[in-house]
């Protein structure tokens, strides 16, 4: 969250951030009014506390001088002050709770260099990579959802039978390819100095608040043992939407040492999100799903280092696509598309040539986001209470947190199934992945199983 002092001193900048990020439902004037009332009550409480301390001292002196009647009057006055102070503190606590809730609704202030814009059309492309020497593709690249089913390595119908829409089975060589990608990514990030974490999948509401998922995006989460429309407590559990949540909250309410920083963690997790987009060509297959695998990179750094680290984090995420030799581009996100918690954000989009989209490159196909690389500055750290002490004798300060996917698996799989497709409908295995598949170079698929396959005339 933003600091209260910043809100008091820069209300118009906060108002601009709310507007440029397109955040609705925030009555900033009401928040400022609550803050002013809270400060007035705090001042009144301090004055009452001072008066009571003076009266308490006076009581002792009066008793010592034998002035019992005056001492009794002072005792009664002290009791009145105590009751008044209790009333003021209770009202101040109520207002502070309202203020804390209101501050959770206010977005991060965008970095001054972030492009100002309304939506994805205002994002700025920084560069493209790996388009100079594209491999020879089939005349008509088969979309991943069709080639996956043709090879019997993807199964959407059976997943819908088991779990509903927005899920899929990976089978045989498809499952092996995804496992290979996970191992491949993890090893790259280990080379880059990341410490591995295998976090729990259920996360508490308090953890979701700490990274900024709550209260803004409750409707997108999978709740355990309750309905999303019902009020939630700090200890209620939710399925992890991204490893950013458990890994960042590992250090919630802790003070790190300067020697600890920078801290670089990587974590593989399955992730769960209700919002999967409208059905159609753009979301068909593995592009928008409710469950997906991802390797996440989370960084804790000194404030003065965070923007250099952001550029380094971007390079670390890109390295996966470079080694896989997949064409991609990097976008700098505008204020209206960067998200609630980010001060600055880059998106990495891989090229998938199977489905032509209006906003795709001139070569055809479409862009698929595989990583968002973000600097949250101290926004998450304030919500989660994560600090560090520059020197042992100095006051603690809030760290800056950053994260980036390294990478999201389904869309990388889409890109591989389409970009590495052969004329005969098989798929080449990218060379860096072959050691994880026992040297296998081509995905040739499997025969379907069951009576339905026989009935369809696909197998004798």
Explain the overall architecture.
By secondary structure, the protein is an alpha+beta fold. The protein has 2 domains: 4-104, Orthogonal Bundle (Helix Hairpins); 120-451, BirA Bifunctional Protein, domain 2 (2-Layer Sandwich). 38% of the residues lie in helices and 19% in strands. It is built from 13 helices and 17 strands. A hairpin with a 7-residue loop joins strand 13 and strand 14. It starts with a helix and ends in a 5-residue tail after the last helix.
Largest sheet: 8 strands, mixed
Q: Give the helices and strands as they follow along the chain.
A: HHHHEHEHEHEEHEHEEEHEEEHEEEHEEH
Strand order of the largest sheet: 1-10-11-12-15-9-8-4
Under the CATH scheme, which class of the largest domain?
Answer: Alpha Beta
Short description:
The chain is built from 13 helices and 17 strands.
List keywords for this structure.
eight-stranded mixed sheet; 17 strands; elongated; 13 helices; single chain; Helix Hairpins; 19% strand; three-stranded mixed sheet; 2 domains; alpha+beta; BirA Bifunctional Protein, domain 2; 460 residues
Chain-wise SSE layout:
Layout: H1 4-9, H2 11-20, H3 28-64, H4 68-103, E1 124-129, H5 144-150, E2 154-155, H6 156-163, E3 169-170, H7 173-191, E4 195-197, E5 202-204, H8 205-211, E6 237-239, H9 244-249, E7 254-257, E8 263-272, E9 291-301, H10 306-324, E10 328-332, E11 344-352, E12 366-375, H11 379-384, E13 386-389, E14 397-398, E15 400-408, H12 409-419, E16 427-428, E17 442-443, H13 451-455
């Amino acid at each position: 969250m933003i600091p209260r002092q910043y809100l008091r001193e820069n209300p118009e900048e906060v108002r601009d951030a709310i507007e440029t990020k397109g955040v609705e439902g925030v009555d900033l004037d009401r928040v400022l009014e609550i803050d002013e009332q809270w400060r007035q009550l705090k001042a009144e409480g301090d004055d009452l506390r001072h008066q009571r301390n003076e009266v308490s001292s006076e009581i002792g002196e009066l008793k010592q001088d034998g002035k019992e009647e005056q001492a009794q009057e002072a005792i009664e006055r002290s009791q009145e002050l105590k009751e008044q102070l209790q009333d003021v503190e209770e009202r101040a606590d109520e207002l502070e709770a309202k203020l804390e809730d209101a501050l959770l609704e206010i977005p991060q202030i965008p970095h001054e260099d972030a492009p100002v814009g309304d939506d994805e059309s205002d994002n700025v492309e920084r560069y493209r990579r790996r388009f100079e020497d594209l491999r020879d593709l089939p005349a008509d690249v088969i979309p991943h959802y069709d080639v996956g089913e043709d090879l019997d390595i993807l199964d959407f119908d059976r997943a819908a039978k088991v779990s509903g829409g927005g899920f899929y089975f990976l089978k045989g060589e498809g499952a092996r390819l995804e496992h290979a990608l996970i191992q491949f990514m993890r090893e790259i990030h280990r080379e880059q100095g990341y410490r591995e974490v295998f976090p729990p999948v259920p996360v508490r509401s308090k953890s979701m608040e700490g990274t900024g998922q709550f209260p803004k995006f409750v409707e997108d989460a999978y709740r355990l043992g309750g309905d999303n429309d019902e009020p939630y407590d700090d200890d209620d559990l939710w399925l992890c939407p991204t490893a950013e949540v458990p890994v960042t909250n590992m250090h919630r309410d802790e003070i790190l040492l300067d020697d600890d920083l920078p801290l670089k963690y990587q974590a593989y997790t399955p992730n769960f999100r209700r919002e999967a987009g409208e059905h159609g060509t753009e979301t068909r297959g593995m592009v928008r799903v409710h469950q997906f695998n991802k390797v996440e990179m989370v960084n804790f750094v000194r404030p003065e280092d965070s923007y250099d680290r952001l550029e380094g984090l971007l390079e670390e995420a890109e390295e996966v696509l470079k080694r896989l030799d997949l064409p991609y581009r990097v976008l700098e996100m505008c204020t209206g598309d960067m998200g609630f918690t980010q001060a600055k954000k880059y998106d990495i989009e891989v090229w998938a040539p199977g489905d032509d989209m209006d906003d795709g490159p001139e070569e055809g196909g479409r862009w698929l986001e595989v990583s968002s690389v973000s600097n949250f500055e101290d926004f998450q750290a304030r919500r989660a209470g994560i600090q560090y002490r520059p020197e042992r004798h100095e006051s603690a300060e809030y760290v800056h947190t950053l994260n980036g996917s390294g990478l999201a698996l389904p869309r990388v799989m889409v890109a591989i199934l389409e970009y590495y497709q052969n004329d005969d409908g098989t798929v080449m295995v990218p060379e860096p992945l072959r050691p994880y598949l026992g040297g296998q170079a081509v995905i040739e698929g499997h025969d379907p199983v069951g009576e339905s396959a026989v009935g369809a005339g696909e197998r004798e």
